[in-house]
Design goal:
3 domains; 8 strands; alpha+beta; 4-stranded antiparallel β-sheet; about 30% strand; 5 helices
């Protein structure tokens, strides 16, 4: 008789965590993605439960170490300047979204400042010209902000959510809502 090996939380599980938060706004897209990954709703919920337990455990590693243990070594590590502050951008591939990367910005002491999906270096972003181009999962926070200035960051409705007030052609202000940095919906 052999002992069953414990399930190691890895990149597939992490993608399920991303999807779990997105399911609040885009359940059909999440169901399609979940099926593409070959997992059940119960498996997605279990991955999210395990992630939450890892992040809230009193013995939890810091966020930077947690991402490295779950996702492996970053594909890219590069210095980045945010205003006057210097940090390190760590990027990992996300197979579900091959043209995106999961980016973790870490300060000089290793503290994670931000974590979200961004366009992979060298990948062309979407053509965003009208509000109709802002479809779910079509763009990242940065891409929307550049396409529809002036853009004003706003507080999101939950952790890992961001809102951005955009100025669409004609001068109308609209609010775009993002989860893990990926557009979920355009409000108003």
């Amino acid at each position: 008789m052999t002992d069953a090996q414990p399930h190691v939380f890895g990149p597939l599980d992490f993608q399920l965590v991303l999807l779990r938060r997105m399911a609040d706004h885009q359940p059909e897209l999440v169901d399609d993605a979940r099926r593409e990954l070959g997992v059940s709703i119960a498996e997605m919920r279990e991955a999210n439960r395990r992630w939450q337990a890892m992040t809230r455990s009193p013995r939890s590693r810091g966020a930077a170490a947690r991402y490295r243990s779950v996702l492996g070594e970053p594909e890219t590590v590069a210095p980045r300047k945010v205003g006057d502050l210097e940090c390190e951008a760590r990027l990992w591939p996300v197979p579900l979204w091959p043209t995106l990367r999961f980016e973790v910005l870490a300060g000089p002491d290793g503290t994670v400042w931000n974590e979200w999906l961004v366009r992979a270096p060298g990948e062309p972003g979407p053509a965003l010209q009208t509000a109709a181009d802002l479809r779910p999962w079509s763009c990242t926070v940065d891409e929307a902000a550049r396409a529809f200035p002036p853009a004003r960051p706003m507080e999101g409705s939950a952790p890992t959510r961001w809102q951005l007030e955009l100025t669409v052609p004609g001068g109308e202000k609209r609010v775009a809502e993002f989860s893990w940095g990926l557009l979920q919906r355009l409000l108003g």
